């Protein structure tokens, strides 16, 4: 099974402008030039030469692959009785004979050129997350504009070609998940994410006619793949944002919205150039990256509520009875909240040390045994550096860890701080006993802990809880960044706040928590408040989330469930658009919406055959509701439905 489905690269890689400006023969010429200049006295001469030879071989391979299509299309055309279809087949044959060997010249060629590269990368890597075209309206608009002006293309023909292009993504499944991987992300799809909007390399507005056309096609198709990302900048017109919100109002979980100005700030903080930062975008769920120039690799999830549980049990995992953490002290003897906080961070640092060491070992294995020379052709500087994408060849190299359970750990710490140390509602001993018993016999305590009127909760613009979220995000960002670059890729260490669907699995292995959550229930999702705890409307949620400095991270996922009533008129759409803009001005990174009532979702659980086409936003992706595991369905239902601002 591992030999069939094992990934050769961790994925989350996006193409840049190089793809749409470069032919494979251009790259082969560059490889030949660099080979001729290699210094034989260089200690790395052999490794560099082997890498360049591998790149040259796979470059030939993709040209041969495309030419086979060209020949086959000509064979089909010879036997085609319909003159119109025969001409179309002949045009397709000509395109496949030209790209990807040469740089594309037309809109149609650009789409086909990219698709050959996409397939080549997917065949080579079998990635966990597929390669993605990134800023498609930015890359393709010059081809579209030129073809329209010169009479080679109409808007309707471009729309048809885009629809075919999107359907190709949707027909290419992600590698199957097995074992714990299936538990962690059972419905996780291929994650090819198309970005529209945002700004250009010179900082000006990028929204153009093609931006709207791409969204229009997706609104009509409503397929699971490709994913979409609406990049929102202060430079973009309100009409673009409102148009995208109208599509979201249909209730199929797309598109999500991203703060592109914030993405640029993140990239600059990480040391990218201004031009590269402006051309950046988001891939996967919510991950920022310098498209076509960066190997930004995800390394796995980090269960913060579980680490708090281990802290409260002095290094012991109560689920197994084994000591797996540090002895940080008996919490019943802590004199104040600061002692608990110090113990928690000490425990976090201990597990981070283990995680970071493991990451570097795995990275070394990928660099040594899993080269990806074809992918390396398309990521800037790999050819020039004579180094593989997996070995540090890219212009920028980053290693990310995904933090999970912000809402749960924040509310848990807030509950202890408020009830145990400040109000002294109950003692730490009483709380610990309640947790050990999964609140059986302590139902009144559980209800008090779960009630936002009686216990501070993140997501309600309540500084008693929100200040702890700020402290957690700041502390963990600084901790992760304090680790030295990885030995092989020299990758910097950064944080994402996203769970995919692992928050459900993490809940299964985490006992009862001090926020009133019972053992086995999902922990909070992304940077969203705990399910059902954000009771004061979308603005309060935005205010809570925006207090944290997300620009010190690579991305953070916020799910919001809206009532269809909010989209009832244009005024509400304008209000929602301005709310998103305000949220992004305050530093928010991302927001996505489920526009469906809990009643409809419960009915779908009862009658799944009648709701086969009901799509919902799960985490950083959408899926058909009825095919989700019941635990994940229930978690989506429990997210509070916002009916007003």
How many domains is the backbone divided into?
2
Basic shape: globular
- C-alpha-based Rg, rounded: 26 Å
Q: How many β-strands, per DSSP?
A: 17
Content of β-strand = 5-15%
Query: Considering DSSP H and I runs of 4 or more, what fraction of the residues is helical?
Result: 40-55%
In terms of structural class, how would the helical and strand content be classed?
A: alpha/beta
Largest sheet: 7 strands, mixed
Low-confidence stretches: 1-6
* Count of individual helical segments: 26
Kindly report the average pLDDT value: 92
CA-CA gap between termini: 50 Å
As laid out across the biggest beta sheet, the strand order is 1-2-3-4-14-13-17
């Amino acid at each position: 099974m591992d030999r069939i489905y094992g990934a050769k690269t961790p994925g989350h890689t996006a193409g840049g402008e190089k793809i749409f400006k470069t032919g494979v023969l251009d790259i082969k010429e560059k490889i030949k030039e660099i080979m001729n200049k290699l210094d034989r006295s260089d200690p790395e001469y052999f490794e560099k030469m082997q890498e360049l030879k591998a790149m040259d071989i796979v470059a030939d391979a993709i040209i041969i692959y495309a030419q086979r299509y060209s020949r086959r299309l000509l064979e089909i055309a010879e036997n085609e009785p319909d003159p119109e279809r025969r001409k179309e087949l002949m045009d397709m044959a000509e395109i496949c004979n030209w790209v990807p060997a040469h740089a594309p010249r037309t809109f149609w060629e650009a789409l086909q050129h990219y698709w050959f590269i996409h397939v080549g990368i997917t065949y080579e890597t079998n990635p966990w997350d597929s390669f993605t075209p990134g800023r498609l309206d930015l890359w393709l608009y010059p081809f579209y504009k030129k073809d329209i002006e010169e009479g080679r293309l109409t808007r309707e023909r471009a729309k048809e070609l885009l629809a075919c292009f999107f359907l190709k993504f949707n027909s290419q499944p992600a590698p199957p998940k097995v074992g714990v991987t299936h538990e962690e992300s059972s419905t996780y799809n291929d994650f090819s994410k198309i970005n529209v909007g945002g700004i250009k390399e010179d900082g000006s507005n990028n929204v153009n006619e093609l931006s709207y056309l791409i969204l229009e096609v997706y609104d009509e198709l409503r397929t699971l793949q490709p994913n979409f990302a609406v990049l929102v900048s202060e430079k973009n017109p309100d009409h673009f944002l409102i148009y995208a919100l109208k599509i979201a109002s249909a209730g199929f979980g797309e598109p999500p919205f991203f703060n592109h100005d914030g993405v640029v700030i993140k990239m600059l903080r990480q040391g990218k150039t201004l031009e590269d930062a402006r051309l950046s975008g988001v891939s996967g769920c919510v991950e920022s990256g310098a498209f076509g120039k960066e190997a930004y690799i995800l390394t796995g999830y980090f269960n913060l509520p579980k680490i708090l549980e281990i802290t409260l049990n002095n290094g012991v995992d109560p689920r197994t009875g084994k000591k797996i953490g540090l002895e940080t002290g008996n919490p019943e003897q802590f004199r104040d909240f600061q002692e608990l906080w110090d113990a928690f961070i000490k425990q976090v640092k201990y597990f981070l040390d283990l995680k970071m060491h493991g990451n570097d070992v795995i990275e070394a294995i990928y660099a040594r045994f899993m080269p990806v020379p074809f992918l390396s052709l398309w990521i800037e500087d790999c050819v020039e550096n004579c180094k593989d994408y997996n070995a540090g060849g890219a212009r920028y190299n980053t290693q990310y860890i995904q933090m999970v359970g912000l809402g749960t750990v924040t509310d848990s710490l807030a509950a202890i701080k408020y009830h145990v140390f400040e109000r002294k509602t109950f003692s730490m001993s009483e709380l610990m006993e309640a947790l050990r018993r999964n609140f059986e016999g302590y139902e009144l305590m559980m209800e008090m802990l779960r009630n936002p009127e009686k216990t501070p909760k993140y997501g309600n613009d309540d500084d008693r809880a929100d200040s702890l979220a700020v402290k957690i995000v700041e502390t963990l960002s600084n901790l992760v960044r304090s680790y030295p670059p990885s030995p092989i890729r020299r990758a910097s260490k950064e944080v994402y706040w996203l769970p995919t669907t692992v928050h459900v699995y993490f809940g299964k292995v985490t006992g009862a928590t001090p926020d009133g959550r019972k053992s086995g229930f999902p922990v909070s999702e992304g940077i969203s408040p705990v399910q059902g705890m954000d009771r004061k409307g979308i603005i309060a949620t935005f205010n809570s989330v925006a207090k944290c400095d997300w620009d010190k991270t690579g991305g953070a996922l916020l799910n919001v469930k809206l009532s269809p009533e909010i989209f009832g008129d244009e005024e509400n759409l304008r209000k929602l658009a301005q709310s998103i803009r305000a949220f992004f001005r305050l530093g928010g990174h991302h927001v996505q919406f489920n526009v469906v009532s809990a009643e409809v979702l419960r009915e779908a659980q009862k009658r799944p055959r009648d709701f086969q086409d009901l799509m919902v936003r799960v985490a950083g992706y959408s899926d058909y509701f009825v095919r989700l595991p019941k635990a994940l369905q229930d978690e989506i239902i429990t997210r509070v439905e916002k009916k007003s601002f």
